[in-house]
Amino acid sequence: xxxxxxxxxxxxxxxxxxxxxxxxxxxxxxxxxxxxxxxxxxxxxxxxxxxxxxxxxxxxxxxx
Length: 64
What we know:
Blueprint: H1 6-34, H2 38-60
């Protein structure tokens, strides 16, 4: 991102955020279903809807 600017910076940032949110949703989904620690499993389950919403929001951003 350091060398990017303008629309290129926006495209790269949106791409990075989309990938990061997809990974977070996958990790939290997995742990909410198969986690061993009850407190962490509950946290993953409670946090998952917000992560999914953030992913949906980032996907709505136009790639300029």
